[in-house]
Amino acid sequence: MKSAELDRMGYLLDPVAFARDLLEFTPDARQAEVLRGGARRLLLNCSRQWGKSSTAAAIAAHRAYCYGGSLVVCVSPTERQTGELVRKIRQFLLRAGVTLRGDGSNRISLMLPNGSRIVGLPGTEATVRGYSAASLVVIDEAARVPDELYQSVRPMLAVSGGDLICMSTPFGQRGFFWKEWELGGEGWTRVCVKATDFDRIRPEFLEEERQKQGGEWFAQEYLCSFAGMENEAFRREWLLTAKAEGLRYRALIV
To answer: For residue 44, which of 26, 28, 56 has the smallest C-alpha distance?
Structure first.
């Protein structure tokens, strides 16, 4: 077997070595855990600035590079965000020496010489229909993606048995990301990384953010909390208490 083929086989089995050697991305311990995890259904509930987009981009690059003919689909709430994720993947693959072009059908797309495609879709339900047999679907900022978009994406994996990564910071106790995190069952691998779990953000900055942004917002953005937002008219825990006590649609008395 030729040396290049041996290298490819080694990288197929070790995504961390692939990221480090070819993508020039050195993952920290938790990022390496995710890269090696091989989870079919992965929820990344992570602090801002942990590097979840870079980690997911490395997984996508590995899939497209090592498994010829793969379809990788990237989705986010907006076309701009999707474009940023695909741009990260593009930068990684260029570092690996891969010649890239568009796929000829999609504005945000990459085509590899081995037949793999990476397609970025804007965040509307109508735009994602028509894709099938995806090897990997990545949903960025998943807490802000509408439920109907998530429901439209999942059938892409029906025939292929492909993998699904949903990554986000929380956005209150609402939407599919929160539901899957809390109630989605054992089919998901859940990874939670708080800002206090890594050292790329200075403690002084975190304290400044806590003071400026308030406790609940800080807990959401940096401590991975699904706490109800401060601007919600009715806090979720109040509603649950009211339901438990049998209160339904009672008028508020001031």
So the answer is: 56
Residue 167's closest CA among 16, 11, 25, 59? 59
Beta-sheet pairing, 189-193 with 117-121:
unpaired
Give one DSSP letter per residue of 128-143, joined into a string: HTT----SEEEETTGG
Domain spans in the chain, listed from the N-terminal domain onward: 3-203
| CATH architecture of residue range(s) 3-203 | 3-Layer(aba) Sandwich (3.40)
pLDDT 10s digits, 128-144: 777 888 999 999 999 99
pLDDT on residue 95 = 97
Q: What is the mean pLDDT of the chain?
A: 86
Q: For residue range 206-230, list pLDDT tens digits in order.
A: 999 999 988 889 999 999 999 855 4
C-alpha to C-alpha distance for 165 and 139, rounded to whole angstroms: 6
Tokens representing residue 85 in the block? 């994720």
26: left (phi over 0), alpha (psi -120 to 50) or beta: beta
Distances (CA, A) of 223 to 218, 228, 247: 7, 14, 33
Give Cα separations from 97 to 90, 91, 111, 138 (angstroms). Answer: 11, 10, 14, 23
Residue 75's beta-bridge partner residues?
121, 139
Pairwise CA distance, residues 252 & 254, whole Å = 6
Q: With cut-offs at 50, 70 and 90, classify the pLDDT of residue 39.
A: confident
DSSP string computed for 161-216? --EEEEEE---SS-HHHHHHHHHS-TTSEEEEE-GGGSSSS-HHHHHHHHHHH-HH
